[in-house]
């Protein structure tokens, strides 16, 4: 089906029509950034029903029977090589690579044999199997397993523990070594000698003999699939205890929040108070990580208390009504992962008032929950006194960050906002992060200067991250004169911001405001900033990214303008 005129597979209906009614499965393969060794470390595979909209396949895919939707095994190869290892034909999948005119992207179609369809249909009868079979790794494991193994019935951690050819003690040392490898190398590829020193030669040999650990000529190593490394890392993370669950640890095992699998599998191994403490520690670092971990748990595996679940639901649901489009979408996506019925009112809430009503109906048994709920239910007309604002300094992340959110949506007197600014001298970076979060809601020349100083000089990445977002929020709330000043602040720091990818990404996200708070004036402000970043780089990918950002701003601004016209009719 490769077109001779272009060398590429046809798109849309032209491509899928011959497959209608047949047992074909469509997957998409993305090649991640290359390592220095030019080995592609990981592919990300998405199933047909999760295709990005830009490929324009959704109308055609809707016509394919839902029973034909499936994911497939993940692959490893050298860039540009369309050959696949023999193991894939052994698992009953027939592949036809379809290169697309998209940089470093390959489209594949695959057809399962009748035997494999029977195996999958049988697995799908088990409760919870549908979720685990969405993972390419576990789908492949199911296809290769003996009939009596019932991979789909297991949790991820149970299957991976059984798969590894290690004793319990060896798994413990391997877990420590895997954790250290992530922490030191910040990569899926790590130094073999360092790993051997921690894990022991017997562990290395057992993993090599089972082909789970692969060795490069450079003396580096990597696991046959990243999920195995993540699992070992998760064992160590679950075992180290509450005092070690700190932001820097979570950042290391997730590649700065790029992948939450190790974190989610650690949570899967915890129960009771430890599970609650883990989610609360995650929340202090990244709300979406906490949401992802909770969303990966099946109902019959539930280990978090109803109070902590309700807290996570409510905090995510509040962000469904944020002014930033990306924040709204991430919160919505995280809530959609939740499998517990008590998440439904938070998923379906049509306003923040509905979120508060949903929380009001949750009865807790712990005193902390009642105190937190009372704070979260604060009304926008409530005045927050300086004594209450002291909660921003709370060690308890749930109380501290809830107060930061409440202070943004309630009323704070001007003299108390000045006091908040003084707290940017606090030695605790988390307190400073919460303060810059609040200051974005109160436009003033002083707050603009404080946020600029934090962006330029604070030694904590999270504080700088919060400062750039709050500067954008300040501009959204400010008059034309202050907007112009903030534009000059940001365009005058293009090189500095470009050198910090996380800060740059947050600026790109924050500048796309939801249509209800956007305006034609905002388009002018955003365009000037985006243009400055666009001309700073010659990289095609970077320029495309800024073009996409501008297009997203335009969509929201024009939608806002159209709605304003309708309102005047």
List the helices and strands and how they pair.
Elements: H1 12-16, E1 24-31, E2 43-47, H2 58-61, H3 87-90, E3 93-99, E4 105-112, H4 114-124, H5 129-132, H6 136-144, H7 156-163, H8 168-185, E5 190-191, H9 192-199, H10 201-209, E6 213-215, E7 220-223, H11 226-239, H12 247-253, H13 261-268, H14 272-285, H15 287-295, H16 306-319, H17 325-336, H18 344-348, H19 352-360, H20 367-376, H21 386-389, H22 397-409, H23 414-422, H24 429-439, H25 445-457, H26 461-477, H27 480-491, H28 494-498, H29 501-510, H30 520-536, H31 540-568
Antiparallel strand pairs: 1-2, 1-4, 3-4, 5-7, 6-7
Walk me through what this model shows.
With 569 residues, the chain is α+β, with helices and mostly antiparallel strands. Among the domains are: 138 residues, no CATH class; 149 residues, no CATH class. It has 31 helices and seven strands. Strands 2-1-4-3 form a four-stranded antiparallel beta sheet. It has a three-stranded antiparallel beta sheet with strand order 5-7-6. A hairpin with a 5-residue loop joins strand 3 and strand 4. The longest helix has 29 residues. It is globular, with a radius of gyration of 25 Å. The relative contact order is 0.04.
Compact overview of the structure:
The chain is of the alpha+beta class and 569 residues long. The protein has helices at 12-16, 58-61, 87-90, 114-124, 129-132, 136-144, 156-163, 168-185, 192-199, 201-209, 226-239, 247-253, 261-268, 272-285, 287-295, 306-319, 325-336, 344-348, 352-360, 367-376, 386-389, 397-409, 414-422, 429-439, 445-457, 461-477, 480-491, 494-498, 501-510, 520-536, 540-568, and strands at residues 24-31, 43-47, 93-99, 105-112, 190-191, 213-215, 220-223.
